[in-house]
Amino acid sequence: MTEEELLQVIEEAARDKITSLDLSFKRVKYLPPEIGKLTDLTSLSLSDNQLTNLPPEIGKLTNLTSLSLSDNQLTNLPPEIGKLTNLTSLSLRFNQLKNLPPEIGKLTHLITLDMNDNKPGV
């Protein structure tokens, strides 16, 4: 998926006020700041892409209850992840995370945190 296609999907999703968005297996390398427009989302899947980081605007998605970031190349998470206080499920498996920001402790509704198979880059 090109950056232009991704922006179009985000604009349409924001306009239509969708609550669930699956962008898995789209070869996304970069998540644009416009992702912050999707404030109605309760579920977002970005699994099996090529993301290396997340924009701070991810923190604007405060209605999210489920966020899947598995099978990417994330090496860290922005502190804004702590603003997603409605999250009950966060999947970070198969990334390159060495640690989590302290703000992860603000996710007091989190029931499932999957961090299996995180291996820092070789």
Care to describe what's here?
- A five-stranded parallel β-sheet has the order 1-2-3-4-5, with no helix packed on it.
- The protein has 122 residues and is α/β, with parallel strands linked by helices.
- It is built from one helix and five strands; from the N terminus they run H-E-E-E-E-E.
- It has a single domain, classed as Ribonuclease Inhibitor (Leucine-rich repeat, LRR (right-handed beta-alpha superhelix), Alpha-Beta Horseshoe).
Give me a quick take on this structure.
This protein is of the alpha/beta class and 122 residues long.
Features:
122 residues; alpha/beta; 1 helix; 11% helix
- For the report, how would you describe the main beta sheet? 5 strands, parallel
Cα(first) to Cα(last) distance is 27 Å
Number of helices: 1
| CATH homologous superfamily title | Ribonuclease Inhibitor
- How big a fraction of the residues is strand? 5-15%
User: Unreliable stretches, pLDDT < 50, 5 or more residues?
Assistant: none
The neighbouring-strand order within the major sheet is: 1-2-3-4-5
Number of domain units: 1
CATH class: Alpha Beta
Instruction: Report the strand count.
Output: 5
What structural class is derived from the secondary structure elements? Answer: alpha/beta
